[in-house]
C-alpha cells in the first residue's frame, strides 16, 4: 500500500502570502488574517516555507505548526525591527519599512500594513529603547544587590540613566527631529506620552524613589523636563562625542539637586521659624 | 493605505505574578488617599479637642489611622502605584473637616467620625467583594489587610456612636453631607 502524503493543513501566516508575491510574480497580496487555514498554497509554491527540509512525519507536524504560526502583531514587530536598519538612509518612512520587509523575504507591499508617516516605526523604536533601558537598569540593580557594584548617588544615577537612554538615539540622530515631530501628532500623543512617562517612572524606581506623596509627581516632572531639554540640545549638538550635551545634562541634574536641597532647607527653616514664633507667643502670654 | 491592527506600544509594565495591575492600582491609590485623609481629619479634631475629655479617644483612633497609612505607603511602593494627584487637596480638606466638625463640639466631632468611618467601611467591603470576585488566592495578602482595616474602621464607627454622635444637632444633614463628600473623594482618587 502506497503511503499517500497529504499536504499539511497549516495556519497560513500573512507573511506566507506576502512571501509568495515577493518572488518573481508581483502578485497583489491579499490581507489574510493569520487565523485562516488553507491547503498547501497555490501556484508559486516556495520551498523556504518548510523550515525542516523533507516532509516531516505525522508527529512533527504539530511542532512545525507552532513554529510557523505567528500573530500579526509579532509579524509587525519583526518588520519594524528589520526596518530600523534602513532609517538612517530613508528616514522614518514607508521606504524604510519596505526595505525592512524585503530583508525578511516579504513583499515591499508589507509597508501597507502601517501608516505612511512612520508613526508605528517610531513608537516601536521608542518602546524598544525603553525596554533596553529597563533591562540595563535592572542588571545594574542586581549587581548592587549582589555587592559587586557601588550604589551610585542619585545625581550620578539619573545622569547615567538619561545618558544611556539618549545614546540609543545616536545611530538615528540625523532623522530624529523628524521622529519627534511625528510623536507630537495628536494621534500619537497618547502613546508617546505613555512611553515617556513609564520610562521616567522606571528610572526613578531604579534610582530608589519611594515617595508616596506629591514628591512623586514633582520628581517625575523634573526628570521629564531634564530629559526633554537634553534631548533637544542633543539634536543641535555637533561637539565630538556629544560632550556638550552630557555637560548640559550634568548641569541640569545638579540644578535639580540644588533645588531639592533648597526646598528641604526652606521647609526646615520654616518649621524652625514657626516653633520660634510659638515660643515667643507663649512667652508673651505669660 | 489601510493600517493593520493598530499597534499600541507601551513599555511593558510586567505585572508581578500576573496581578491585574489596573484593579490593584485603583484600590491602593484610593485606600492610600483615604487613610491619608482620615489622618488629617483626626489631626484637625485633635487640634481643637486635643485637651478635652475625648482627646485620648480621638488620639487612639488617630494612632490606628497612622498605622493604616504606613501600611498603604509600603503597599504603594511594593506595587509601584501612583499616588493620587489630589493629595495636597485632601491634606487641607481633611484638616478643615476635622477641625470644623470639632468646633461643633465633641458630639460634632463624633458625628463626623461616624459618617466617615461608615463610608470607609462600605468602601472597603466593596473592594473586598471585587478582589474576591477576581481571585481570592492571588490577592490573599491584600484581602487580609483590607479586612483587618475594615474591622478597625468599624470599631471607630462604633466608638463614635458610643460617644453620642447621634445627639449632634442636625446630625442627619451633617452625616449625609460628609458622606457625599467621601463618595466624591473616593471617585476622584480612584481616577486621578
From TrEMBL, chain A:
Residues 189-259 form the COQ9 C-terminal domain. One of its GO terms (molecular function) is lipid binding. Pfam families: COQ9, COQ9_N. One of its GO terms (cellular component) is mitochondrial inner membrane. It is found in: Mitochondrion. Residues 72-102 form the Ubiquinone biosynthesis protein COQ9 HTH domain. GO terms for biological process: ubiquinone biosynthetic process. InterPro entries: COQ9_C, COQ9_HTH, Ubiq_biosynth_COQ9. Pathway: Cofactor biosynthesis; ubiquinone biosynthesis. Membrane-associated protein that warps the membrane surface to access and bind aromatic isoprenes with high specificity, including ubiquinone (CoQ) isoprene intermediates and presents them directly to Coq7, therefore facilitating the Coq7-mediated hydroxylase step. Participates in the biosynthesis of coenzyme Q, also named ubiquinone, an essential lipid-soluble electron transporter for aerobic cellular respiration. PANTHER family: UBIQUINONE BIOSYNTHESIS PROTEIN COQ9, MITOCHONDRIAL. Belongs to the COQ9 family. Homodimer. Heterodimer; two heterodimers of COQ7:COQ9 come together on the same side of the lipid pseudo-bilayer and form a curved tetramer with a hydrophobic surface suitable for membrane interaction. These two tetramers assemble into a soluble octamer with a pseudo-bilayer of lipids captured within. Interacts with COQ7; this interaction allows ubiquinone (CoQ) isoprene intermediates presentation to COQ7 and facilitates the COQ7-mediated hydroxylase step. This is Ubiquinone biosynthesis protein. It comes from Cardinalis cardinalis (Northern cardinal).
From TrEMBL, chain B:
Pfam families: COQ7. One of its GO terms (biological process) is determination of adult lifespan. GO terms for molecular function: 3-demethoxyubiquinol 3-hydroxylase activity; metal ion binding. Pathway: Cofactor biosynthesis; ubiquinone biosynthesis. GO terms for cellular component: mitochondrial inner membrane; nucleus. It comes from the Eukaryota. The keyword Membrane applies. The keyword Methyltransferase does not apply. Keywords: Iron, Membrane, Metal-binding, Monooxygenase, Oxidoreductase, Ubiquinone biosynthesis. This is COQ7 protein. It comes from Cardinalis cardinalis. The gene is Coq7.
Amino acid at each position: 500500500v502506497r503511503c499517500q502524503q497529504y499536504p499539511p493543513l497549516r495556519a497560513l501566516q500573512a507573511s506566507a502570502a506576502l512571501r509568495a508575491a515577493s518572488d518573481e510574480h508581483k502578485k497583489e497580496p491579499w490581507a489574510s488574517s493569520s487565523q485562516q487555514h488553507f491547503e498547501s498554497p497555490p501556484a508559486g509554491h516556495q520551498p523556504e516555507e518548510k523550515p525542516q527540509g523533507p516532509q516531516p512525519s505525522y508527529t512533527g507536524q504539530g511542532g512545525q505548526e507552532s513554529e510557523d504560526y505567528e500573530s500579526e502583531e509579532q509579524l509587525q514587530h519583526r518588520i519594524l525591527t528589520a526596518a530600523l536598519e534602513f532609517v538612517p538612509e530613508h528616514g522614518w518612512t514607508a521606504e524604510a519599512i519596505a526595505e525592512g520587509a524585503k530583508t525578511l523575504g516579504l513583499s515591499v507591499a508589507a509597508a501597507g500594513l502601517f501608516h505612511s508617516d512612520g508613526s508605528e516605526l517610531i513608537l516601536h523604536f521608542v518602546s524598544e529603547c525603553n525596554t533596553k533601558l529597563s533591562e540595563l537598569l535592572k542588571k545594574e540593580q542586581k549587581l548592587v544587590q549582589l555587592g559587586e557594584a557601588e550604589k551610585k548617588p542619585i545625581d550620578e544615577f539619573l545622569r547615567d540613566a538619561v545618558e544611556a537612554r539618549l545614546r540609543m538615539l545616536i545611530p538615528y540622530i540625523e532623522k530624529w527631529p523628524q521622529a519627534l515631530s511625528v510623536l507630537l501628532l495628536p494621534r500619537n500623543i497618547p502613546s508617546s506620552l505613555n512611553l515617556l512617562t513609564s520610562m521616567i517612572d522606571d528610572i526613578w524606581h531604579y534610582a530608589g524613589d519611594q515617595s508616596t506623596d506629591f514628591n512623586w509627581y514633582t520628581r517625575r516632572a523634573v526628570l521629564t523636563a531634564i530629559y526633554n531639554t537634553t534631548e533637544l540640545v542633543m539634536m543641535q549638538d555637533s561637539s565630538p562625542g556629544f560632550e556638550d550635551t552630557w555637560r548640559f545634562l550634568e548641569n541640569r541634574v545638579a540644578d535639580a539637586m540644588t533645588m531639592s536641597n533648597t526646598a528641604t532647607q526652606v521647609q526646615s527653616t520654616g518649621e524652625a521659624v514657626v516653633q520660634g514664633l510659638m515660643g515667643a507667643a507663649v512667652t508673651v502670654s505669660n | 493605505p489601510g493600517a493593520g491592527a493598530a499597534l499600541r506600544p507601551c513599555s511593558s509594565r510586567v505585572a508581578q505574578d500576573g496581578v491585574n495591575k489596573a484593579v490593584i492600582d485603583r484600590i491602593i491609590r484610593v485606600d492610600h488617599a483615604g487613610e491619608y485623609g482620615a489622618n488629617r481629619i483626626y489631626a484637625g479634631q485633635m487640634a481643637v479637642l486635643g485637651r478635652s475629655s475625648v482627646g485620648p479617644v480621638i488620639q487612639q483612633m488617630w494612632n490606628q489611622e497612622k498605622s493604616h497609612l504606613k501600611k498603604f505607603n509600603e503597599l504603594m511602593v511594593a506595587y509601584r502605584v501612583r499616588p493620587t494627584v489630589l493629595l495636597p487637596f485632601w491634606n487641607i480638606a481633611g484638616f478643615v473637616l476635622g477641625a470644623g466638625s470639632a468646633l461643633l463640639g465633641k458630639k460634632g466631632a463624633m458625628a463626623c467620625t461616624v459618617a466617615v468611618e461608615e463610608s470607609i467601611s462600605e468602601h472597603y467591603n466593596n473592594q473586598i467583594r471585587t478582589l474576591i470576585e477576581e481571585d481570592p488566592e492571588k490577592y490573599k495578602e491584600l484581602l487580609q489587610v483590607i479586612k483587618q482595616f475594615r474591622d478597625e474602621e468599624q470599631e471607630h464607627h462604633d466608638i463614635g456612636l458610643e460617644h453620642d454622635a447621634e445627639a449632634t444637632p442636625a446630625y442627619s444633614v451633617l452625616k449625609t453631607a460628609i458622606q457625599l463628600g467621601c463618595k466624591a473623594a473616593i471617585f476622584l482618587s480612584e481616577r486621578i
